[in-house]
Amino acid sequence: MSSLGDENDARGASRQDRVAGASAVRLSSSSATAPGGQGKYQSMHSFVRALRDAVKSWPLLVAAFLCSAGVASLWGANIAALFPIIEVTLNGESLQSWNAKRIEDATRRIGIGRSQEETIRAQLAAEMFSEDEAAAAQRTLDTVTLNLRGDEALLYSSEKLDPWLHRFLPDDPFVTVLWVVAFVVASTFLKHAFLMASTMLVSWVAMNITRDIRLKVFDKALAVDRAQFMRHGSAGFMAQVTGTSEMLASGITSVFGGAVTEPLKILACLGGAFCISWQLTLACLTLAPLVGFMMVWLNRRIRSVSRKILGRSLGFHHVLLEAFNNVLTVQAYTMEDFERDRFRTCTKDMLKIGMTHTFYHALANPITEILGIGMVATSIAVGAWLVINQQTEIFGITMTERPMTVPGIMVFFGMLIGASDPVRKLSGVFTGVNVGIVGAQALYPLLDAPSTLVEPAHPVALQSPHREIRLDHVSFSYDGIDTVLDDVSVAIKFGERVAIVGPNGGGKSTLINLICRFYDPSKGRVLIDDVPLTDVALGDLRGRIALVTQQTELFNESILYNIRYGRWEATEEEIVEAAKKAYAHEFISDFPGGYRTMVGPNGFRLSGGQRQRIALARAFLRNAEILVLDEATSQIDVESERLIHDALAAYVENRTVIMITHRVSTLELADSILQVEHGKIVKRPAKQLQAA
Fold first, then answer.
1. ∠ CA 316-318-320, rounded to 5°
2. Fewest beta carbons within 10 Å, which of 3, 539, 540, 621?
3. pLDDT tens profile 30-89
4. Which of the listed CATH numbers 3.40.470.10, 1.20.1560.10, 3.60.15.10, 3.40.430.10 matches domain 4-25+38-78+178-448?
5. Strands 626-630 and 485-493, bridge-based pairing
6. HSE (CB half, 13 Å, CA atoms) of 648?
């Protein structure tokens, strides 16, 4: 409403103070005031809610998981495929002869192992050893038994593999190399196909969730009461719809994309390394706890910085929109340099915090690489010592059952290198998850905040037209401190034409806000036909009202679109008739595009009087039983005012008309006057005021 901003400005802080605190206020309203505060639990709870929303698309996520599993298995398989090249073919052997030799060696070792096992068991049963010797013999027996089980497993797998090798693989070593190379190339293509499919599926889910969140934020902005909307502001809601939603999408993509694919790749490679030597693999992971601790610390820092970025982003949107929406005032009062300084200040703050975020994000890479390099360095040092010295132990700790070969340790190195790359990529995944957590923490409390304008569960149906609008001991305050309306009781009969007069800030627009139920009263009730407005559906109530304000709001669409907004199903003939009643048809017809003429953002291509007449045409087209005019003729010239006065005189028949006005010509239409001053309202016949 036109006077609402004046009333709020009169009661609020100074303009510069409001701007300075805008970011903090909006950030606190969107996240700090959320149930449970800004604690870690609340952050994760909001993000888990987003993940639960994503899980509703479980078929796509299952498909993405299967693709990720395919990527991980092929990632390890590509490295494992090097083994036959290194171990077998480069020595001039075929895989068939190599496998036959494995069967022969395993059979021989099993025979020796069983003989040793029987001998030691017999010696232990005969009690041929002292207590210490018996303990040593038992340890030897355990080692022999363990090696025997390994050889038996190797023999079993080799025998099962043997017919497949003869059936599908060539006998020639070089041809085998070509087959392995072809497998690596084909699996690489397949791996990237799986990776692309997984990325597309997860991205679709994340973007769909983001779209749903944006729709919910948009719906929330349209549904909340005016006080809540002004608390966040257009900039706040825009930031939530754009940047914050993107943050949440990044987090969801990281969880169902990288947080699945990369760990699976790590598991695939570490699983291959475990098969070669689980002891050596564990030794290579000695730095993992330290790196894990550092990543936890880093994640907390990134999350904290992300919150600051979100807060500065809200302030950035606030300054930007305020300057653009009030550009005429900025230019008229030569405040361009001031606004430039404000914008430079907020962008400089964003730059500083952005650089801090970049620093911590960049720090994640070296921390994770420490783990990767640590694994590889440990494996090289320990593995080289074992291979060179043909040992199975180091510092008395068993690393392998048998001495490692050069090809074996090379494949082991390859597995660890293959695991180090996804470990490095996990730093980006952690960053994405943290950003998503911050976005969810800002979005969900906003969506959960209840509107004070609650739709009734069982709305009361009103007759049409209504009989009476009544305020019953109504008091109202915007901030809970200054009272705008104080114990007001007044009735407006159907068909009555009421003019509201009084000084600025006296409560005129507030009275209309309550009747239209943009706010609910702090005390008392507003009733229509003795039914409280809180028991009437908002759509039913506002469907009975046509509103024209002093600050005309037009959409950046055609004139036809803006008039039709009053009743969307209206025909073009009805739209033209409404424009004629508002004396807008003549100037509309003068435009080259006629009713198809685009009015520009908020109607900037039209004069103030033209905008108001289009708004009047929109109200006339609505054909509502209650017409509310808030200084609706303030920007119209004298001749147009006379014409519109005649139009209103004909239109207001059999309608309730509530007018805020200072125009004498408009007062002549009134049956009664509501004198509003200092929160009190006095109703008197219009003739008394006109006589005075």
1. 70
2. 539
3. 333 333 344 444 557 777 888 888 888 888 888 888 888 887 777 767 666 666 566 666
4. 1.20.1560.10
5. unpaired
6. 26
